[in-house]
């Protein structure tokens, strides 16, 4: 009898985490590799947040907490949703988890029956499809188009709806493209969903605070109040507050769904980390002014790298409106011959070539469900970004074009 079940044999480890691990190993071997494949801010966690964790530890807040989060953190989250998103939630609507990732996983696990469908616009964050598969759901991918800014259109959504549709999964600002949905675009999607009371929506707002060019962030439950009872609004501390290692995410949604997610959590991981929860309450309630500086910094890096990469023949960058990634069309490199005689046939070949020749790690678009593209993170020190762009330029210069 085989040890592993069918579910785990169907899914693969996270490709982004795998490549980050490979970069760490290459660095440990002494190689001068620049990792642009990960998704975590290069800023340190703010000092007031670290101090709140220290204070929690010193004052004995080192025990299990309520499964769905401490009353203090839940209150800070209720205030955040009200202040930033004009969303009115009670305690019964809020759950804190070990990262947004756990909450997304919980939501799929407690709602999907075998064969239920989840509409996922592509390109997508790498973990949505495996999570849906773990929960025995079916992914229904909708390829978005560059001319639509890589955003799902109402027409495309309409076409994908079936009697088995359980969820639509929206992510704005998007990982990997950085696309940000406007209020009108969300309302137009909401209109399509209106006559389908059995369809629920996950909005993954984890990059909410990282938006450029004075663009305003909107979330579906806010702009379509009559859908609020069908929306799970997911957010977290990782990206906004540079708290990836603290592992705290949160979500607001309909009470019966939140209760079921809490039940699953109570039988799997129990409460999230107590000190990290105290730190998160401070992050949400404390000074936010550093964020303006961080976002300005990301925007400068974006502008600089867009110019540099667009200057490399064969690459074309989609200018992101948010998050901290660049989504790069590399179709212009396909068919080219490398110095060792290999023909670049896919974005995976391009990423391998860049890692081997330029020692720059980029994530192939294939991992996000769209080719031929690659994603780079700009949440990396500017001098490393500049060096990476120069290396990519040199590597492309060595190719023999078809
Ligand atoms: N959602 C998106 C779109 C992400 O990019 C990530 C992390 O990369 C997550 C969720 C998970 O975040 P967390 O660290 O809170 O689990």
Characteristic terms for this protein:
402 residues, alpha/beta, 7-stranded mixed β-sheet, 14 helices, 40% helix, globular, binds pyridoxal-5'-phosphate
Shape: globular
Structural class by helix and strand composition: alpha/beta
Strand tally = 13
Q: Separation of termini?
A: 51 Å
Bound molecules: pyridoxal-5'-phosphate
**Main sheet overview:** 7 strands, mixed
Average pLDDT works out at 96
**What is the alpha-carbon Rg in Å?**
21 Å
Low-confidence stretches: none
User: Into which percentage range does the β-strand content fall?
Assistant: 5-15%
Count of helical stretches: 14
Succession of helices and strands: HHEHHEHEHEHEHEHEEHHHEEHEEEH
Strand order of the largest sheet: 2-8-7-6-5-3-4
Provide the helix percentage: 40-55%
Give a brief description.
This protein is of the alpha/beta class. The chain contains 14 helices and 13 strands.
């Amino acid at each position: 009898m085989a040890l592993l079940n069918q579910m785990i044999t169907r899914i693969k480890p996270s490709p982004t985490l795998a490549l980050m691990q490979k970069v760490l190993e290459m660095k440990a071997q002494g190689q001068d590799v620049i990792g642009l494949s990960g998704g975590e801010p290069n800023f340190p966690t703010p000092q007031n947040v670290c101090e709140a964790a220290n204070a929690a530890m010193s004052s004995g807040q080192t025990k299990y907490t309520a499964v769905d989060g401490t009353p203090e953190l839940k209150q800070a989250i209720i205030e955040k949703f009200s202040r930033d998103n004009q969303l009115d939630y009670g305690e019964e609507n809020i759950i804190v988890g070990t990262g947004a990732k756990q909450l997304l996983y919980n939501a799929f696990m407690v709602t999907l029956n075998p064969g239920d469908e989840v509409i996922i616009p592509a390109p997508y964050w790498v973990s949505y499809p495996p999570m849906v598969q773990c929960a025995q759901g079916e992914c229904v991918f909708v390829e978005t188009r560059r001319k639509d800014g890589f955003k799902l259109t109402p027409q495309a959504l309409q076409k994908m709806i079936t009697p088995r549709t359980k969820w639509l999964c929206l992510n704005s600002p998007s990982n990997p493209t950085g696309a940000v949905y406007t209020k009108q675009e969300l309302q137009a999607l909401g209109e399509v969903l209106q006559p389908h009371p059995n369809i629920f929506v996950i909005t993954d707002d984890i990059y909410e605070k990282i938006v450029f060019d004075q663009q305003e962030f909107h979330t579906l439950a806010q702009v379509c109040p009559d859908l609020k009872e069908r929306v799970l609004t997911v957010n977290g501390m990782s990206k906004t507050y540079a708290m990836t290692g603290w592992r705290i995410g949160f979500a607001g949604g309909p009470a019966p769904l939140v209760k079921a997610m809490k039940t699953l959590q109570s039988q799997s991981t129990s409460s999230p980390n107590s000190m990290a929860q105290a730190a998160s309450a401070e992050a949400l309630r404390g000074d936010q002014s550093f964020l303006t500086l961080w976002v300005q910094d990301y925007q400068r890096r974006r502008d600089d790298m867009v110019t540099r990469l667009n200057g490399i023949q064969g690459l074309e960058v989609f200018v992101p409106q948010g998050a901290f990634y660049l989504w790069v069309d590399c179709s212009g490199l396909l068919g080219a011959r490398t110095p060792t005689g290999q023909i670049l046939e896919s974005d995976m070949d391009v990423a391998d070539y860049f890692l081997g020749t330029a020692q720059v790690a980029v994530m192939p678009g294939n991992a996000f469900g769209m080719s031929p593209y690659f994603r780079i993170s700009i949440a990396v020190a500017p001098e490393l970004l500049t060096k990476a762009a120069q290396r990519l330029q040199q590597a492309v210069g060595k190719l023999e074009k078809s």
